Amino acid sequence: MSLAITLPPAFPVVGLGAAAIAFLQIFQMGVVGAARKAAKVPYPNLYVSDAEAKADKLKLKFNCAQRAHGNTLENVPSILALFGFLSVFHPIVATSAVVIWAFGRVFYTLQYAAGNPNNRNGGLARTHYIGVLTLLFGTLYVAVTKSIEVFA
Questions:
Q1: Mean pLDDT in residue range 6-24
Q2: Cα separation of 81 and 98, whole Å?
Q3: Which of 51, 122, 125, 150 has the greatest CB tally within 10 Å of its CB?
Q4: Residue 151 pLDDT > 90
Q5: Domain 13-151 is in which class?
Q6: Which residue, among 100, 97, 103, has the nearest Cα to 83 in the 3D structure?
Q7: Cβ(112)–Cβ(145) under 8 Å?
Q8: Buried-exposed string 93-124: b where 16+ CB fall within 10 A, e elsewhere
């Protein structure tokens, strides 16, 4: 048994999704860097202590910015796996989903980095859920339907 994958003509659009993830990471590095500078947190410290963050709002904002970036980094491997798989079969859907995810993560970052972690998922930040759910359910749909075709 062999499985041949032919990339659809629209596959080059996937580069836009990959670029969206890269731009998101660059944006977040800038937010963390600006917060680090404002709070005067020296390298290589990843975070400041809770006591420091409670005593200085700029240090709290730094911790929040760093956490927003860290949370995104924790999610990127899953996003890339789902994006990569789905893009082979539905490149426009996959690219749209990952761009929506990245767009939502920009607002997630801005809201989290403002210093109130409870506000990180408000407003436009919620759009990242649309992206990740589209990637997840799109991947599941393709995996199940293609598996049925192969094993039927």
A1: 95
A2: 11
A3: 125
A4: no
A5: mainly alpha
A6: 97
A7: no
A8: bbbbbbbbbbbbbbbbbbbbbebeeeebeeee
